[in-house]
Amino acid sequence: MGILNGKTAVVTGSTSGIGLACAQAFAKAGANVVMNGMGAPADIENERAAIERAFAVRAIYSPADMTKPNEVAELIALGEATLGSVDILVNNAGIQHVSPIEDFPAEKWDAIIAINLSAAFHAIRAAVPAMKKRGWGRIITTASAHSLVASPFKSAYVAAKHGIAGLTKTVALELARSKITCNCISPGYVWTPLVEKQIPNTMAARRMRRDEVISDVLLAAQPTKEFVTVEQVASLALFLCSDDAAQITGANLSMDGGWTAA
Ligand code: NAD
User: Fold this and answer.
1) What pTM was estimated for this model as a whole?
2) pLDDT tens per residue across span 144-180
3) If you ran DSSP here, which 8-state letter would residue 116 be given?
4) Among 198, 220, 225, which Cα is nearest to 210's?
5) Among the record's GO biological process terms, what is one (predicted)?
C-alpha cells in the first residue's frame, strides 16, 4: 500500500523533466495523476500509458495552457470530475528566457510571469475550496534557487520565482488551520530540457562557448559541481506529501548543491 493510495495529484508541466519525475514518483506511491504540459501527442500518450501500466493507477492528461487562467481552472476541475478529488497540487510548469534587460522581449516577460507565477495562483485558487472541504491537501511549487538569489539576464524568471516564494508563505499562513500545507522546492541546476534550451542564449549573452556555459555559469553556481537530478526533486516533493511533513508549511526548501549557502 503506497502512502498516496486513494489520492489524486495534479502536476502541471509533467510531460518532461521535474514534473514527469514527480508524476512518476506520486504514481509509484499509489496516487492517480493528472498530467499536463506541451509536447508531441504520441510521446505524451506513451508516458501516460507507461505510468498506468507500471504503477496500476489512473493517469489522465490535460493539454491546459498555463498562460490561460480559465484553462488552469479547468485542469483542476478535470481532476476533481474525472478522478474524484485533487488532493495534491504541484505547480511545476515553467519556461525560461535569457536576455539583457534592454533587449528582453516584452512577450517573453509576459509568458514567464503567466506560466511561472500567475498559473500557480490560479491553480491554488481553484484547488483550495475542495481541499478545505476534505480537510487535507498538499500544495507544492517548483520554485528555484532564483527565488532566493538573482543571476544576470534572467529578469522575468527571477522575478517570477521570487514571487512564488512570497505566494507560498502567504498561502501557507492562510491555510495553516486547514491541514493543507503549502511549500516550494528550490532546486539549483537540474539537467532538463529547460536548462539545455537556455544554453544558446546564455552563450550569446555572455559571449561564451557551450562547455564554458556549463562549467563557468551553471555548475559554477553549485559548490558540489554536480547537477541536481529530477528524481531527487521528486523524492522531496513526495516527502512533502507524507504525514511526517505535516508541520512543514510555508517553507522554501533548497536543493541546490550549496549554491545559496555561499
Ligand atoms: P522542462 O522544460 O523539462 O519542463 C517544463 C514543463 O512545463 C514541460 O512539461 C512543458 O511542456 C511545460 N510547459 C511549458 N509551458 C507550458 C504551458 N504554457 N502550459 C502548460 N505546460 C507548459 O523543465 P524543468 O527543468 O523540468 O522545469 C520544471 C520546473 O522546474 C520549472 O518551473 C522550472 O522553472 C523549475 N526549475 C528548473 C530548474 C532546472 O535547472 N531545470 C531549476 C530550478 C527550477
Assistant:
1) 0.97
2) 999 999 999 999 999 999 999 999 999 999 999 999 9
3) I
4) 198
5) monocarboxylic acid metabolic process
